[in-house]
Design a protein that fits this description.
binds adenosine-5'-triphosphate; globular; 428 residues; alpha+beta; Phosphatidylinositol 3-kinase Catalytic Subunit, Chain A, Domain 5; five-stranded mixed β-sheet; binds magnesium ion
C-alpha cells in the first residue's frame, strides 16, 4: 500500500512552515520499498525556496525516487523519530507503519527545518517545548515508559514524550534561559556506576580544550544532560517564534546522489571530508575541523562515532552548510585494546591507530606534516586535560580509574596493538 505525507519547510529565518512538497512510500515487487518526492509548483516559484538537500533533492520540477535508507530520502529520514522516538510511539500509541506512520505520529520537534502533515492545508500540530519545572517529572515519566508504564493522567496534556529528536537514549526538548535544549535523560539500561550525563558534559568540555567546536552543555538534576540546540533560535518580530535551521546527517550525505535509484552506501571520515566540498560554505575549514574530531574520537575512545553522530547545519548563505557543533561524545570501555571506530579512518580501516589516522590526510586538505601536528596537538590536549574534565564534573576517583584505559595514547600501527594485547596475555 502506498502511504504519503506532505513535507513542510521552515525557510531561513521563518518561524512558520511553508508547504514544500509531497512524499510517497510504496512497496515494490523486487522487495525494497521506493520513496518519491516532488516539490510543489508554488514552492518552486517562491523566491526564498531552498532545497531539502542540495545534492539529492535539488530544486527541479521532477519526481525524485530512492530505494536508499528503505525508500526514505536522507533529509526526510533525519527529521523522523529514531530509535527512542519510535520506541515511545510504539509503546504509547501502538506500532505504526514505517515510515509515514511515524512521520505523522511524532512531535514537531525534530532536528532541522522540516515538518510533516497528512493534509496539505496545515502543518503538524503546533508543539511547545517543556519548561524546566517539568524536568523532574519528565525524568520519571521516561524511566516509567521503559518499564511499560503510561504517562500519568495529570501530565498528559502538558508532557508529550514522543520526540522526533534522533538517537537511542531517552530525550526531550526543553526551554531554558530563552534557548532550546536537548535534554538527555538517564535510562534503565545505563551502567549505574558510570554517570553518562556527567561523562558526556566532560567530553564536550574536553573537546573545546582540544580546539573542537562542541555543543554547549550542562548537567542538571544530577543526571540529566542539557545540550543547547544549535538548530533553533528565538526570533522576535511580527511572527515571534523559533527559527529552524536545516540539518543533514553524514548518513544523508553518504547516500546523496541526485535523483538516482540508490542502495545504502556507508562511508568514512575521508569520504565525508570529500563530500563536504559539495555542501560546505567553507570546505577547507570544515575538513580540518573534521580531521581534528576524528583524532579526538580515537583519543577518547568514542567508538560510537557513527554517521548520524556527524552532521552539517545551514549556513547564513542560503543553500550552503557548515559542520554542526560536535555532539554525542562519550568514551566507550573496551575489553580489548582494539578501538574500532564506527566510521572508517584511512581507506577501509577503522582501527584507531596513528597510521590509519594519517593515511587519508590529503582528503582533508592537509599535508602529512599538518596532519601529524594536529594528531600530536589533540593527543596532548586529551592527555593533559581528560582527568581534570572528569573531576570537574564530579566523577568519583573509582569511575575515573575505570575510564583511564579509554584515554591511553594512540597506538602507532595495528601490529603494535596486537603486540600490546599479546604482552598483556603473557606478561614476562
Ligand atoms: N545540540 C544539538 N542541537 C540540535 N540537535 C542535536 C544536538 N545534539 C544532538 N542533536 C540531534 O539529536 C540526535 C540525538 O542526539 P545524540 O546523538 O546526542 O543522542 P543519543 O541518543 O546519545 O544518540 P546515539 O543513539 O547515537 O547514542 C543527533 O543524532 C542529532 O541529530
Ligand atoms: Mg547520537
Amino acid at each position: 500500500m502506498t502511504s504519503e505525507a506532505y513535507v513542510w519547510v521552515h525557510l531561513p529565518g521563518d518561524t512558520r512552515p511553508t508547504l514544500c512538497g509531497h512524499y510517497t512510500h510504496a512497496p515494490t515487487a523486487a522487495g525494497s520499498p521506493v520513496g518519491t518526492f516532488v516539490y510543489g509548483r508554488s514552492y518552486l516559484a517562491n523566491p526564498d525556496r531552498i532545497p531539502l538537500d542540495p545534492v539529492a533533492l535539488p530544486l527541479r520540477p521532477v519526481t525524485f525516487s530512492t530505494t536508499a535508507l528503505n525508500g526514505v530520502f536522507g533529509a526526510i529520514h533525519d527529521a523522523m523519530p529514531d530509535d527512542w522516538g519510535r520506541y515511545v510511539i510504539d509503546k504509547l500509541q501502538g506500532v505504526k507503519a514505517f515510515p509515514v506512520g511515524y512521520m505523522l505520529a511524532t512531535l514537531d520537534d525534530s532536528i532541522g527545518n522540516l515538518a510533516f502533515s497528512a493534509a496539505s492545508t496545515s502543518a503538524q500540530s503546533s508543539w511547545l517545548p517543556i519548561g524546566m519545572d517539568l524536568l523532574p517529572a519528565a525524568r520519571e515519566v521516561l524511566l516509567g515508559i521503559e518499564q511499560g508504564q503510561p504517562v500519568p493522567k495529570e501530565l498528559e496534556g502538558r508532557l508529550r514524550p514522543n520526540t522526533a529528536m534522533g538517537g537511542a537514549r531517552p530525550k526531550l526538548t526543553v526551554e531554558h534561559d530563552g534557548r532550546l535544549w536537548l535534554a538527555k535523560f538517564p535510562s534503565t539500561r545505563d551502567d549505574q556506576s558510570l554517570p553518562d550525563a556527567k561523562l558526556e558534559a566532560a567530553m564536550l568540555a574536553l573537546g573545546v580544550l582540544c580546539g573542537i567546536n562542541t555543543a554547549k552543555a550542562q548537567v542538571v538534576l544530577g543526571d540529566v544532560l542539557l545540550v543547547e540546540r544549535f538548530d533553533r533560535a528565538w526570533v522576535d518580530g511580527p511572527e515571534p517564534g523559533w527559527r529552524r535551521d536545516s540539518f543533514l546527517s553524514a548518513r544523508t550525505i553518504f547516500n546523496a546522489s541526485a535523483g538516482a535509484q540508490q542502495t545504502y552506501a556507508g562511508g568514512g571520515y575521508g569520504r565525508l571530508a570529500t563530500e563536504l566540498v559539495r555542501y560546505s560554505a567553507d570546505p577547507q575549514a570544515d575538513q580540518k575541523e573534521l580531521f581534528r574530531r576524528m583524532v579526538f574520537n580515537v583519543c577518547i575512545s568514542n567508538t560510537d562515532d557513527h554517521d548520524r553522530n556527524h552532521g552539517i547545519l545551514a549556513d547564513d548563505q542560503p543553500g550552503f552548510y557548515r559542520l554542526s557543533p560536535a555532539y554525542d561524545l562519550l568514551p566507550k570501555q573496551h575489553s580489548t585494546l582494539r578501538r574500532f571506530q564506527a566510521m572508517t579512518l584511512g581507506g577501509a580501516e577503522s582501527l584507531g591507530t596513528r597510521e590509519n589516522l594519517l593515511a587519508d590526510s590529503t582528503k582533508f586538505g592537509l599535508s602529512p606534516a599538518e596532519a601529524e601536528a594536529i594528531v600530536k596537538e589533540v593527543e596532548l590536549g586529551v592527555a593533559l586535560h581528560w582527568h581534570d574534565c572528569l573531576r570537574a564534573q564530579g566523577l568519583s576517583a573509582a569511575a575515573i580509574d575505570r575510564l583511564k584505559p579509554c584515554f591511553s595514547g594512540i597506538p602507532l600501527t595495528a601490529k603494535d596493538v596486537d603486540q600490546a594485547i599479546e604482552s598483556r596475555r603473557n606478561p614476562r
